[in-house]
Amino acid sequence: MSSxxxxxxxxxxxxxxxxxxxxxxxxxxxxxxxxxxxAKEDIKDKDFIYGIVKGVVDAE
Length: 60
Hints:
Layout: H1 3-21, H2 28-39, H3 46-59
Protein backbone atom coordinates (compact mmCIF):
# COMPACT_ATOMS: atom_id res chain seq x y z
CA MET A 1 0.00 0.00 0.00
CA SER A 2 1.42 3.39 -0.89
CA SER A 3 2.34 5.77 1.90
CA UNK A 4 -0.21 8.41 0.84
CA UNK A 5 -2.96 5.81 0.53
CA UNK A 6 -2.22 4.56 4.03
CA UNK A 7 -2.08 8.13 5.34
CA UNK A 8 -5.49 8.92 3.85
CA UNK A 9 -6.91 5.73 5.36
CA UNK A 10 -5.59 6.67 8.80
CA UNK A 11 -6.99 10.20 8.41
CA UNK A 12 -10.42 8.92 7.44
CA UNK A 13 -10.44 6.37 10.24
CA UNK A 14 -9.44 9.09 12.71
CA UNK A 15 -12.16 11.44 11.53
CA UNK A 16 -14.77 8.71 11.77
CA UNK A 17 -13.70 7.85 15.30
CA UNK A 18 -13.56 11.51 16.33
CA UNK A 19 -17.04 12.18 14.99
CA UNK A 20 -18.85 8.97 15.84
CA UNK A 21 -17.31 7.32 18.86
CA UNK A 22 -15.99 10.15 20.96
CA UNK A 23 -18.78 12.60 20.16
CA UNK A 24 -16.04 15.19 19.66
CA UNK A 25 -15.09 15.11 23.33
CA UNK A 26 -11.68 13.57 22.65
CA UNK A 27 -8.80 15.47 21.07
CA UNK A 28 -8.40 14.45 17.44
CA UNK A 29 -4.61 14.51 17.82
CA UNK A 30 -4.76 11.68 20.37
CA UNK A 31 -6.96 9.68 18.00
CA UNK A 32 -4.53 10.21 15.11
CA UNK A 33 -1.54 9.07 17.16
CA UNK A 34 -3.41 5.95 18.30
CA UNK A 35 -4.40 5.09 14.72
CA UNK A 36 -0.86 5.68 13.42
CA UNK A 37 0.47 3.23 16.03
CA UNK A 38 -2.24 0.69 15.15
CA ALA A 39 -1.36 0.88 11.45
CA LYS A 40 1.93 -0.88 12.29
CA GLU A 41 3.50 0.42 9.11
CA ASP A 42 6.04 3.13 8.58
CA ILE A 43 4.05 6.29 7.91
CA LYS A 44 6.53 8.90 6.78
CA ASP A 45 4.22 11.84 6.20
CA LYS A 46 2.36 12.34 9.47
CA ASP A 47 1.93 16.04 8.67
CA PHE A 48 -0.21 15.00 5.69
CA ILE A 49 -2.58 13.12 8.03
CA TYR A 50 -2.74 16.00 10.49
CA GLY A 51 -3.41 18.43 7.63
CA ILE A 52 -6.34 16.43 6.31
CA VAL A 53 -7.92 15.95 9.72
CA LYS A 54 -7.33 19.54 10.85
CA GLY A 55 -8.84 20.84 7.62
CA VAL A 56 -12.04 18.89 8.23
CA VAL A 57 -12.17 19.73 11.93
CA ASP A 58 -11.67 23.45 11.23
CA ALA A 59 -14.41 23.39 8.57
CA GLU A 60 -16.95 22.22 11.16
